[in-house]
Write a structure and sequence with these properties.
Belongs to the peptidase M24A family. Methionine aminopeptidase type 1 subfamily. Its cofactor is Co(2+); Zn(2+); Mn(2+); Fe(2+). One of its GO terms (molecular function) is initiator methionyl aminopeptidase activity. By secondary structure, this protein is of the alpha+beta class. It is built from four helices and 14 strands. The strands form five sheets. The protein has a three-stranded antiparallel sheet with strand order 1-3-4. A three-stranded antiparallel sheet has the order 2-11-10, with no helix packed on it. It has a three-stranded antiparallel sheet with strand order 5-9-12, with helices on one face. Helix 1 packs across helix 2 and helix 3 packs antiparallel against helix 4. The longest helix is centred in the first third of the chain and has 22 residues.
Length: 256
């Protein structure tokens, strides 16, 4: 626990504002995403919106040498998909848009799945089950529960629906830095791992695969795909541990 930064009330207030602003980015995207648009156009739209409308900083740009403001992960891409002028959305695609935003020195992190047109039934099921699994994990959060409790709830829901949980990537603490302690695994055993305390802030962001949980990284050094080339989905929210439970700092209007 010594490396985990418990947020003060002042810091929580600033993180609420970052989360609120980030949620509004997805509201703007909802009417922008369509067949034929390129992932680079999405990237440029989000960069302009964060900087010029929200007067904030896209926190992913420049982080670890990354050139863009978001990850755009389509179909078999698990995470860290790189925006491209040539990569255009097609009917039946599923895409995860993973975006970070910094305001007043504090970062919020969230991602949302978009289904393009009439997707295949298995794709819709995967997207829906992944969203449900994220919420199964979120609903566990309160002081005294453990990170293992969160992972177990997510894993149980995904696997009972016939899907697998990615092992290689996980959620994380967040605040002034995009990646802080603790690591938040999306599988686990009850009553194991770090015990949650009021004031902890971290992401819950399960990556759930249609087939095997195994992944591999492409030669670009960023893009991670399913090893069997089957579909993958992810949803993400930034979560605060409150005195009696949780608060979703990046909650979107349609979820409220």
């Amino acid at each position: 626990m010594s490396n985990i930064h418990i947020k003060s009330q002042e810091e929580i207030g600033l993180m609420r504002e970052s989360g609120r602003l980030l949620a509004s980015v997805f509201t703007a995207l909802d009417s922008y995403i369509q067949v034929g648009i390129s992932t680079m156009e999405i990237n440029d739209f989000v960069e302009d919106y964060i900087i010029n409308t929200l007067h904030s900083r896209p926190a992913s740009k420049g982080q670890y040498g990354y050139q863009y403001v978001l990850n755009s992960s389509i179909n078999e891409v698990v995470c860290h998909g790189v925006p491209s002028v040539g990569k255009k959305l097609r009917e039946r695609d599923i895409i995860n848009l993973d975006i970070t935003l910094e305001k007043n020195g504090y970062i919020a992190d969230s991602s949302k799945m978009y289904m393009i047109g009439a997707v295949l039934p298995i794709a819709k099921k995967l997207v829906d089950v992944t969203y449900q699994a994220m919420w199964q994990g979120i609903k566990v959060v309160k002081p005294g529960k453990t990170l293992g409790d969160i992972g177990h709830a997510i894993q149980t829901h995904a696997e009972k629906n016939g899907f697998s949980v990615v092992r290689d990537y996980c959620g994380h603490g967040i605040g002034r830095e995009m990646h802080e302690d603790p690591q938040v695994l999306h599988l686990g055993k009850p009553d194991t791992g770090i015990t949650l305390q009021e004031g902890m802030v971290f992401t819950i962001e399960p990556m759930i695969n249609q087939g095997s949980y195994k992944t591999k990284q492409k030669k670009d050094g960023w893009t991670v795909i399913t090893r069997d080339r089957k579909l993958s989905a992810q949803w993400k929210h930034t979560i605060l541990v409150t005195p009696s439970g949780y608060e979703v700092l990046t909650l979107r209007d349609e979820e409220a």
